[in-house]
Amino acid sequence: MERDFETVMIEQCAPVLAGLKPAGLFRYETRNRADLARRVAGWNAQLNPKGLQVRVLRGCIATRQYLVYVYRESKLRAVLAQPQVRDFLCREGYTLPEQSDDYAPLLRQLSRRLCCEADFPHEIGVFLGYPLYDVVGFIENAGRNFTYCGCWKAYGDPSAAQRHFAQLNKCTAVYLRLFRSGTPIQRLAVAA
Asked: What is the pLDDT of residue 2?
């Protein structure tokens, strides 16, 4: 069953629209690829002035399922420029661009991994703004031994994770309420 693109974007990316997270990802199913391309282009035209980008990282014509990535360029650039994140991505087999703030080649590599590799690239967590210790903890523990489970599996301080997840969940609930009562996404997206 196809769900409304905008509703799914709010459900999965409200903290990104609010500036609380650098990026979010959602699965969208549609029979109409041309309509999806128009939606992505339209949302980019409306959200780019607020520092947001929308792009399809992966798509499958057979299943009609697409992974749509919504991100704040400046925040993503800052995350991917961190030396410890760059070292981690290098260890994971990414070819690092010469300029530490050039995130585009890294997104292309992630997209290829999503499309072409048998194993899911769990390093995607850093592209979504998860703390590096949570991403590394998930990979090293194969998703087990986490200290708290919320928006993702946390491997650090469980109280801090619980507070952070509560903030993200509250943001999503408020944004959904506002969206359902008629506030357009353009007004919900804060400028950064």
From this structure: 56
